[in-house]
Amino acid sequence: MSKLDDLFAFLSIPSISAQREHAADVENCADFLVSKLASLGFDASKHLTTIHPIVVAKSPSVEGKPTLLIYGHYDVMPVDPIELWESEPFTPEIRDGRIYARGASDDKGPIMALIHGVQEILAEDGQLPLNVTFLLEGEEERGSETLYEFIKDPAVQKMLDCDVIVVSDTGMADINTPTFSYGLKGLCCFEIKVSGPAMDLHSGLFGGAAPNPISALCEMIASTRDANNVVTIAGFYDGVMPIADWERQSWSRVPGMSDRELSALTGSRALRTEKGYTGAECVYARPTFELNGITGGYQGEGSKTVIPTHATAKISCRLVPGQDPQRVMNCARKHFEKVCPPSVTMEFFDGHTGEAYIIDPHTNYGKAAQRALENTFGTAPVLLREGGSIPIVAAISKTLGKDTIFLGLDLPDARIHSPNENMRVEIYEKGIELTKNLLRLMGEE
Question: C-alpha angle 388/285/139, rounded to 5°?
C-alpha cells in the first residue's frame, strides 16, 4: 500500500471510543495497527482491557542505542453534527490539498506519519538508528481510563522502559512555523444538575412563585467570574506557576497568536482575556473555567411555556503547572454549594482529571528534537506550552521517569473535534520526514 492508501484505510475505520455501537470498530482499528507494525518487523501485540484495546509494538533490538517510546491514540471523537460535514467523515478525500476525515489530524494522521517515517528508514538503511516502542491507545478521547491501570503493572513498565517519550498530538503555530511544545495544560471536568419543582409547571399558573432551575443555574455560573474575567472560585489559582519573562517574549512572536489574529481565527468580534494577560498567555499558561454545555427545559420547535424541573451544565477547567486537579474540583464543588439558592437543590458529578505537564526544553533530547524540526521545515521552531490537554501523558512520564517531547503537526485550521476535520497533505509528508530526522538525530545521543 502507498503512504496515502495506508492512511486512508486507517481513517476509514470509525473508531469512536465514546460510543458503544463502535466498540467493534475500535478493536478493528487496533488490529489494523498490529498488522501494519508487524509487517515492519515489530513485535506487535494487542492488549485487551475492560473497554478498548492497547497496542504495543517493539522494534528489533539495536544494541547500545537509546529507546524512543512513541505514544498516540487511534480513537476519534464523534462526528456530530453530521449535517455540517461536506464529505463523509469516514470516507477520506482530498480537496484543495487537504485530507478530510475524522481523525485526519487528531491523531491518526500523525500516527501514520510516524509509522511511515519508520518504514522509510527501514527501506533506506535496513535497520533503525535506535530502538522504538509504539504505545497506541483507543481511549484518549474518553479519558484513557484503562491505560492508567495498564501502566501500573511493573511488567508493563519494564516493557515500556525508554530514554525519552515522543508525542505528536499537539499543534503547529502555522504551516511555515515548526513548533516544539514543552508543556500541556491539565484538566478537570464536572457536571452540575440543579433541580426545582417536582414536574414541569405551567409558567403562567406558577411563574413568579415556583423556582426556575435554569435561572438558578445561570446565576450560579455567573458568580464564577468578575468583570476582569478572573475566576472567583476561592482557591482556584492556588499554586499557579507564573509566566517567565523569556516565555512572554517568545510567545509574543508566535505567528497568528496576536490578540487581533486570535480574534480573526476564532471568528470572534473581540477576545475576552483575563485582565493583564494577552490571548496567547491565556491559552498557553493561564487556567481556564469554561462552560461546555447547558441544557434545561423545552428545546423543540415553537414555544412551550413551562418552568422546567431540571437544568444541567457541563464544565471543564484547563489547568497549569502547580495546580492540583482534584483540589480545583473540590474548590468548584464548595463554590457551587455556597451559591446554590435555597429554593433549588444541586448535584455535583465529578468527571475525569489530568495533571498539567512541563519539561525543560533545553535537554539533549529536547535540542535534538528542535534540530529535527529545523531540518524538516527549514526554520527554527518556536517554543510554547500547549493550551490543550493529554492527561495520560503526565502519568506515563511520571510512571516511567522520562521526559515527553511534543512535536505538533496540527494546524490551527485543522478543525479538530469539529466537522470537516482535515490535514494538509504537505504536513503529512513533512511528518514522515520529521520522523526520519528525529530518529536519526536521537540515535546519536
Answer: 20
In whole angstroms, give the CA distance from residue 251 to residue 180.
12
Note down the domain range covering 132.
3-185+356-442
- The cell numbers describing 297, all together, are 427545559
The full DSSP string for 193-257 is EEE-SSS-EEHHHHTTTS--HHHHHHHHHHTTB-TTS-B-STTTTTTPPPPPHHHHHHHTTSTT-
Q: What's this model's pTM, rounded to 2 decimal places?
A: 0.85
Q: Identify the CATH number of the domain in which residue 51 sits.
A: 3.40.630.10
C-beta of residue 163 within 8 angstroms of C-beta of residue 67? yes
To which residue does cell 493583564 refer? 276
- List the grid coordinates of 269: 468580534
What percent of the chain clears pLDDT 70, i.e. is strictly above it?
100
Rounded Cα distance, 249 and 192, in Å: 39
Q: Is residue 252 part of a domain?
A: no
Give the integer Cα–Cα distance in Å for 438 and 127.
15
Phi-psi region of 231 (alpha: psi -120 to 50; beta: other; left: phi over 0): beta
User: 11-15, 102-106, 260-264 — which is least confidently predicted?
Assistant: 260-264
